[in-house]
Design goal:
mainly beta; 2 domains; about 40% strand; 5 helices; elongated; about 10% helix; Jelly Rolls
Length: about 300
């Protein structure tokens, strides 16, 4: 059976100082999935630790559940893309929401105190909650949210990547925000939404993190990421991060060639791939050492056969 791999799914971005820290664990895997760590794909198995900077990709109809170390649980179904920007609070730092970026697809999230809040961001808006179970569905031009229990908040996109207007949502409410229509809510999810809902989303998300508290699973290497797989991220909202992260792939001719064909689209790499020519060195004119003055014969000669004075 041919597996259709889709771009993207789960990325934990953090600062260089905390890159690689464990952010959670894969507790359910039904189907095939792989993780991009650095610039290399690895095969995912249950019990695998999710680290800051990881990008997890699920195959078509695969189910992947990740239980974050900060509390929230996330379950998504392929085909889907889910990008996590931060894993939340860290020792010695102020608590911050665990943030996910969902270009398109389905995800069910569960956040409850005392865990850190969870935020799901899309191109059309964001949903944030600290005590709620909710389903988020994103398309290229719309976001739909159904709050199963608890309460949350829908955030419209603002200018320059900031959050715009906020709308409170409570248990049982459905919200829709699309680029071609205003924000709207309803007292129940519409039949179209319910009919398309992944079947297992109707049940509570199980907690299985305790099964993997001690055992650590080694991931097996698959292969480096290709340019075709990287291109959507290199030109997406997290471009700067992927430009830095994937620059080592430029040493591979198969990756470098398509980049060179579109070099104007990657000004950050132009210095690496097409450095400006160094100005030619102009040698200074040679300066000859001054010549010693020539000795001249005296015009007057002594008449007694000598040239020198007595």
């Amino acid at each position: 059976m041919k597996t259709t791999w889709l771009t993207g799914c789960f990325l934990f971005l953090a600062s260089a100082l905390c890159y690689g820290a464990d952010a959670g664990v894969v507790t359910i895997l039904d189907g095939n999935a792989r993780v991009l760590r650095g610039a290399t794909w690895y095969k995912v198995v249950e019990g695998a630790r999710v680290q800051d900077g990881d990008l997890i990709e699920a195959s078509d109809r695969a189910q992947v559940q990740i239980e974050l170390a900060t509390g929230p649980t996330v379950n998504f179904v392929g085909p889907a893309s889910l990008l996590a920007v931060t894993s939340g609070s860290r020792e010695g730092s102020k608590a911050a929401p665990a943030e996910l970026y969902l270009p398109q697809g389905w995800v069910k999230v569960a956040a409850k105190p005392p865990g850190v809040a969870l935020r799901v961001r899309t191109a059309s808006g964001a949903f944030s909650a600290a005590d709620a179970v909710a389903v988020v569905h994103a398309e290229n031009d719309a976001i739909e949210v159904f709050v199963e229990t608890g309460s949350g908040r829908m955030l419209e996109p603002g200018k320059s990547g900031a959050d715009g207007a906020a709308h409170d949502l409570k248990s049982g409410e459905f919200a829709l925000r699309a680029t071609d229509r205003p924000f709207a809510t309803a007292g129940a999810a519409p039949q179209k939404f319910v009919g398309a809902l992944p079947r297992h989303f109707r049940d509570p998300l199980p907690s299985r993190a305790t099964h993997y508290q001690v055992a650590r699973v080694q991931l097996s290497v698959d292969r480096p990421i290709s340019y075709a797989e990287a291109e959507p991220w290199l030109n997406g909202p997290y471009r700067r991060t992927f430009i830095r992260r994937l620059q080592p792939r430029l040493s591979d001719p198969d990756f470098r060639a398509p980049v060179m064909a579109k070099l104007q689209a990657y000004p950050e790499w132009q210095v690496v791939l097409a450095p400006p020519e160094a100005p030619s060195k102009v040698e200074p004119p040679k300066v000859e050492p001054p010549k010693a003055p020539e000795k001249t014969e005296p015009k007057f000669r002594w008449p007694f056969g000598g040239d020198s004075k007595r």
